[in-house]
Design goal:
heterodimer; A: alpha/beta; Rossmann fold; 3 domains; 6-stranded mixed β-sheet; 4-stranded antiparallel β-sheet; B: mainly alpha; two-stranded antiparallel sheet; 1% strand
Chain lengths: 606, 360
């Protein structure tokens, strides 16, 4: 057995996978109408590039990726675009989202395929472009654009590609079935991504409760030519959440993804088997992502199983085909019972991240009992796979002590739900954490906005002040220039003892004025230097954190404003200093010795 | 979201109410042994305290306009009552029990917000209050006459004692014959000139006292084993508490065996085992992280030994637990586990320092 590392905690929920693995993957009937949401991926929603009334073939691009992290959407049937409107989509809050609705006749299925590529010989850029044009995103549930993930080598050195076939959540068997039937494709897809990302080895991590998938993989590994990359299969006993990215990396490699970091930070890339197959199909067959394998299960279905269905198919059609008994249906869940989302209606479209639909009866997934008080028993601590103190986080989240929650590493929570699973008081802990996280994010956003506004205001004030100071300096210069001849005459012609007293007085006042101005100038110079330093550091470090691009862009912009403000302040003070020097030089003809020393001081102060 | 729950699949008690029920079951061996050795007074304590606890909890919940039934169903008040009842001297007066339960349930628990909110162990708050306010009554332990022996209290006498209708707690002529000191108490007040061996040889206690206390401690240990087996408590607190007591007692015993009790003496007498498994492990008021529990338990063990050796009281579990309750937030801040992806655990409360590079 391969040496296995381990992550803390974990739970053993009942697997309930047997029902959906009895039959091979079926192909779902071609739907007459599909609804394609534009935000089926992490990042910005795509922008429609077809018009209502336009005829499209299966595989035609209907929406284009927007921004850095986004993905194309393709028509999944042949037909006519009949609407581009907001419709309800699978979303935890039941929100509406812009969808492209295509109607076909349920029979015609003309494909608009891209030319086939040989990934062994094609250039990297061609492959990136192909992945980009095929709308491939992570099919495990997160929906991260594959093309963006493949490009990660631009920022990080990747040594290992992990195929995440753990599929630790109960009910779901889509990856299991994909591997049983398409192990060779998955493996080749893995090689393709490994080549693109520069990984030297591929490790397939799988829980050992999937013997058929394991033997299929072993056959595929033996059959394939593995001279370029080393492929290892590592199986381990089932324990939720071993399929969590960070947990799996820890389990297989003993590496820990740093807090708030990415697997790429430790040289690892994780992909789901379905995603790898989709990537291969996009490259080898020129087939964009228009369908996916989804597990249909739950006791309210008479014929549970896995089907390959077109994206955008109404869930009700898939469930009806699987023998849905609506009278027994208590709740419909997309994803697994631990981390999935409960859907409020049956007409929602299948999306790229729908790996499983559970039509559960009341007995199967009963409503949780009434929440009881936390007695800090610590069962959650034993279950937590991230090494957190869920009981403390719960108290902090409930009392909105966000600073303490952050101190106790709230943001390292992967929301796996193991703590809720074991809680004897039936507290929906993860809900509390999610609420606290979103509140903290909202607060941070507001604070940043306020900070931006403040800096812009300060910049404006500084600019006005600088302009005023320069104007004043010019005015004084003019006044001095006009006064100077008479002033000199007066000073030189009247060497009266009384006037020396007065002359002594005035420089002293001017000196203190000059002194404070010089101090201010030094401070302003320091401020400018500090702003420059911070800006340089931030703009340098942004390179390494690709995901928070948007946020750091805003940060840089803000820092630039701060730097400009500091420069304006410096300019204003220099103008005033110059004016004051002029005035002082005119007031005392001969430079007093005290005035020299601050001058040299000024050189040293910075 | 977690739509599944352990209770649907596991045989372990995974419901607060059932956890408490198992806790009550685990107290049975201890209570039975206490009753066997010290008579029906133990049972009257436990039953009265349990009844008061449930009644007071219901009353306060009604006053707080909360639903009574589901909260009472968690059995936590009953547990508090039974634990306090089991710690009282057998045949304690009804009124004392009521005072203790008001302190425990109303003041220490419900005034803080009910189950889960109390910073102090409710049963020990009640016990400490009684011990300080009524020291005479609280230190009068029955001699181990046995449940069936004619020397013990009859049912009528017990009733009179409990309801306070007898001639008085201390003035009654029967009291001296009936009561006896605990070994801890007796040993604490042994004359300094007397060596330990001489002291025990002089037979200072009624027959069977030592054996009775040893049996009681072992019965509590059996109950504690059940708790451990059922995973209702962690091993950390009992182990660290008993270990700390053992280490200190061994040290003192090694230095001067003639004036200090042996580790076994300290473990098997007083409330050491009972406290370690049933009192200190109250999760609400104990430290919560696994590492924190070790420090918490060890702290209790050290304090128990300190008070037993140098304090005014013969036993000290209540005070030690309450004192360590104070330290729980502190312990919890400094014993966080290392979260995955962090090089080292966070400790204490850090104020995020402003990035100040303006050093020039």
């Amino acid at each position: 057995m391969v040496k296995a590392f381990d992550f803390p905690g974990g739970i053993h929920p009942p697997a309930r996978k047997a029902a959906s693995t009895q039959h091979p993957i079926a192909t779902a009937a071609l739907p007459r109408r599909v609804m394609l949401p534009l935000g089926q991926h992490v990042g910005q929603p795509a922008e429609p590039c077809v018009a209502v009334g336009q005829r499209v073939a299966t595989g035609t691009r209907v929406a284009r990726a927007q921004g850095l992290i986004s993905a194309d959407v393709h028509a999944s049937i042949t037909g006519e675009v009949i609407a581009i409107e907001p419709y309800p989509v699978p979303h935890p809050a039941g929100l509406n989202e812009l969808c492209i609705v295509i109607e076909g006749d349920g029979i015609r299925d003309d494909w608009a395929l891209l030319p086939s590529l040989d990934w062994h010989s094609a250039a990297d850029d061609t492959l990136y472009a192909r992945l980009n044009a095929s709308g491939v995103v992570g099919l495990g549930g997160a929906g991260f654009p594959t093309q963006v993930k493949a490009r990660v080598r631009e920022r990080h050195a990747i040594d290992t590609l992990i195929v995440n076939a753990a599929e630790c959540e109960p009910y779901i068997s889509a990856d299991d079935m994909t591997l049983r039937e398409h192990a060779a494709d998955v493996l080749e897809g893995a090689r393709l991504i490994a080549r693109l990302s520069g990984a030297q080895r591929i490790i397939i991590g799988i829980e050992n409760d999937k013997p058929e998938a394991i033997s299929a993989l072993n056959r595929a590994i033996a059959a394939a030519n593995t001279e370029t990359v080393e492929v290892t299969l590592k199986d381990f006993p089932a324990r939720y959440p071993s399929g969590g990215e960070k947990q799996l990396i820890k389990r297989l490699l003993g590496r820990e993804v740093p807090s708030r970091g990415l697997p790429a930070d430790v040289g690892v890339l994780c992909h789901n088997p379905g995603t790898l197959r989709a990537a291969l199909q996009a490259v080898r067959d020129g087939r964009p992502l228009v369908s996916r394998i989804v597990t249909l299960t739950g006791e309210a279905l008479t014929r549970p199983g896995n089907v390959e269905a077109r994206l955008g198919t109404p869930m009700i059609e898939l469930l009806a085909a699987a023998g849905l008994d609506e009278a027994r249906l208590a709740r419909l869940v997309m994803g697994g019972p631990m981390m999935g989302i409960e859907l409020s209606r049956l007409e929602l479209p299948l999306v790229k991240s729908s790996n499983c639909l559970i039509a559960a009866t009341l007995d199967e997934l009963p409503p949780p009992p009434v929440e009881q008080p936390c007695i800090r028993c610590g069962a959650c601590e034993d279950a937590c796979p991230a090494g957190l103190l869920p009981q403390q986080l719960y108290w902090f989240a409930k009392s909105r002590e966000h600073d303490k929650a952050e101190l106790f590493n709230l943001f390292d929570c992967i929301e796996c739900g193991a703590c809720s699973f074991v809680c004897p008081s039936h507290i929906p802990l993860v809900d509390y954490y999610r609420a606290a996280k979103s509140e903290i994010r909202a607060q941070a956003f507001e604070a940043r906005k306020a900070e931006h506004a403040k800096h812009r205001f300060e910049f404006r004030q500084a600019r006005i002040e600088r302009e005023a100071a320069e104007k004043e300096a010019r005015r004084q210069a003019r006044a001095q220039a006009a006064k100077r001849p008479s002033g000199i005459a007066a000073n030189s012609t009247t060497p009266v003892p009384g006037s020396t007293g007065r002359g002594h007085d005035q420089p002293a006042a001017a000196d203190t004025d000059l002194k404070s101005l010089r101090i201010a100038q030094a401070a302003a110079k320091a401020a400018v230097r500090k702003a420059e330093k911070v800006l340089a550091r931030v703009s340098q470090s942004t390179g390494s954190k690709g995901q928070q691009q948007g946020q750091s862009d805003g940060e840089i912009e803000d820092l630039e404003v701060q730097l400009a403000t500091a420069r304006e302040n410096l300019a204003a003070i220099e103008a005033r200093l110059a004016a004051a020097k002029d005035a002082a030089a005119d007031a005392t003809q001969e430079p007093a010795p005290q005035r020299r020393s601050p001058d040299t001081d000024q050189e040293r102060t910075p | 979201m977690s739509l599944m729950h352990q209770s649907q699949v596991s045989r372990q008690p995974t419901d607060t109410g059932r956890v408490m029920t198992w806790l009550l079951l685990a107290t049975l061996p201890g209570i039975a042994t206490l009753t066997w050795h010290f008579g029906l007074g133990v049972l009257s304590n436990v039953l009265l305290a349990g009844a008061f606890a449930a009644g007071l909890e219901a009353l306060v919940l009604r006053l707080r306009r909360r639903t009574v039934r589901p909260v009472l169903a968690d059995n936590s008040a009953l547990v508090t009552g039974v634990l306090l009842g089991a710690s009282l001297p057998p045949g304690t007066s009804l009124w004392l029990i009521l005072v203790g339960m008001v302190a425990a349930i109303v003041v220490a628990k419900q005034l803080y917000g009910g189950l889960g909110q109390n910073p102090f162990n409710p049963a020990m708050v009640g016990y400490a209050l009684l011990l300080i306010s009524f020291p005479a009554a609280m230190t009068q332990w029955a001699a181990p006459h046995g449940l069936l022996s004619p020397d013990g209290l009859s049912l009528g006498e017990l009733l009179a004692r409990v309801t306070g209708t007898s001639s008085g707690m201390n003035s009654g002529t029967g009291v001296d014959a009936w009561s006896g000191a605990t070994p801890l108490d007796a040993f604490k007040h042994k004359p300094d000139a007397l060596l330990a061996s001489e002291f025990w040889a002089s037979n200072p206690l009624p027959d069977g006292t030592q054996a009775a206390w040893r049996n009681v401690a072992l019965a509590w240990l059996a109950g504690g084993a059940l708790l451990l087996y059922k995973r209702l408590i962690g091993w950390q607190i009992p182990l660290s508490m008993l270990a700390a007591m053992g280490v200190l007692a061994s040290f003192l015993y090694a230095v001067d065996p003639s004036h200090h009790g042996s580790p076994a003496f300290h473990w098997l007498n007083g409330a050491a085992v009972f406290g370690a498994f049933f009192i200190a492990t109250d999760p609400v008021s104990a430290a919560t992280s696994r590492k924190g529990k070790l420090y918490y338990g060890a702290g209790i063990g050290v304090l128990v030994m300190l008070i037993r050796e140098t304090g005014a009281y013969p036993d000290a579990v209540a005070f030690a637990v309450l004192l360590m309750n104070f330290t729980v937030p502190f312990i919890d801040y400094y014993t966080q586990p290392r979260t995955q992806g962090h090089a080292r655990p966070n400790r204490g409360i850090k104020v995020t320092r402003l990035d100040d590079e303006e050093a020039s």
